[in-house]
Design goal:
Helix content is about 30%, strand content about 40%. By secondary structure, it is of the alpha+beta class.
């Protein structure tokens, strides 16, 4: 028993070796302000690979950058034509789907990340969406999650940009992520993975704050906190705009 306790104590006292390669990250901006004239933004991500030892021999290091917006449940409905009318038939609740998701890689994703590592870290778009399951009577349940991906790809909210991360001398890397105008407000997560032979050797995570500011923020808060006054104000503005347009057209007609 004494020998076992001594051996356990010695194991606890052994130094824990740090990761051979670590990410030192930089962002062009860690806060995106959504204003009335916001038409999208380009996020520049750059960094370096910190090493305590020389570059390991073997395959070169690869870099994967994944930026995800706030995740929330999404209800997807299937429509079918019955008696000449399109009606909703089945529906599936996709448990979590990011409002925005973009992946940039230094090479083909299938070549630099194994399926096992993708399953573990949820890097690809399909893995980022979590759908626990649907009712047994619903056919083609996976089609509902695929529909979310297809729709949001068409809206430029989901994208995979392979071979767009530049890696210099296996030490410096850089890429850019295009963020569309219709961003959802919230905390966005940027994850950086270093891989060798398809295995993740290091990862880093940081947060990007995306918020409405100025008039957009005021109107958003008012619509949530004081919906009655927000509705009355919208009605007054609509009446004033209609009256102003009518007056302007009448003056132009009389000239």
């Amino acid at each position: 028993m004494l020998r076992s306790l001594i051996a356990a104590f010695c194991l606890l006292c052994l130094p824990v070796s740090a990761a051979e390669e670590q990410v030192v990250l930089g962002l062009s901006q860690d806060r995106v302000a959504i204003t009335a004239t916001f038409d999208g933004s380009e996020l520049l991500i750059f960094g370096a690979i910190k090493r305590e030892t020389p570059i390991p021999p073997g395959p070169p290091v690869e870099v994967i950058v994944a930026v995800a917006g706030p995740s929330e449940p999404v209800t997807v409905r299937r429509k079918e034509r019955k008696l000449g009318i399109w009606v909703n038939t089945d529906s599936v609740l996709v448990d979590l789907a990011p409002s925005f998701y973009a992946v940039a890689t230094s090479g083909p994703l299938d070549d630099i990340l194994t399926d096992t590592e993708d399953l573990r870290y949820r890097v690809s778009i399909e893995r980022a969406i979590r759908s626990v399951g649907a009712a047994m009577h619903i056919r083609g349940a996976q089609d509902f999650a695929d529909a979310v991906v297809r729709i949001r790809e068409d809206e430029n909210l989901y994208s995979i940009r392979e071979a767009t991360v530049a890696v210099d001398e296996q030490t410096l890397f850089r890429t850019s992520i295009d963020m569309p105008a219709d961003l959802t407000e919230g905390d966005y997560t940027a994850r950086i993975f270093l891989t060798r032979s398809g295995e993740v050797v290091s990862q880093y995570e940081t947060t990007i704050d995306v918020r409405k500011v100025g008039l957009e923020r005021f109107l958003y808060n008012m619509s949530r906190q004081q919906p009655v006054w927000y509705g009355l104000m919208s009605l007054v503005i609509a009446i004033a705009a209609g009256w102003g347009a009518s007056t302007a057209f009448r003056l132009l007609r009389d000239k």
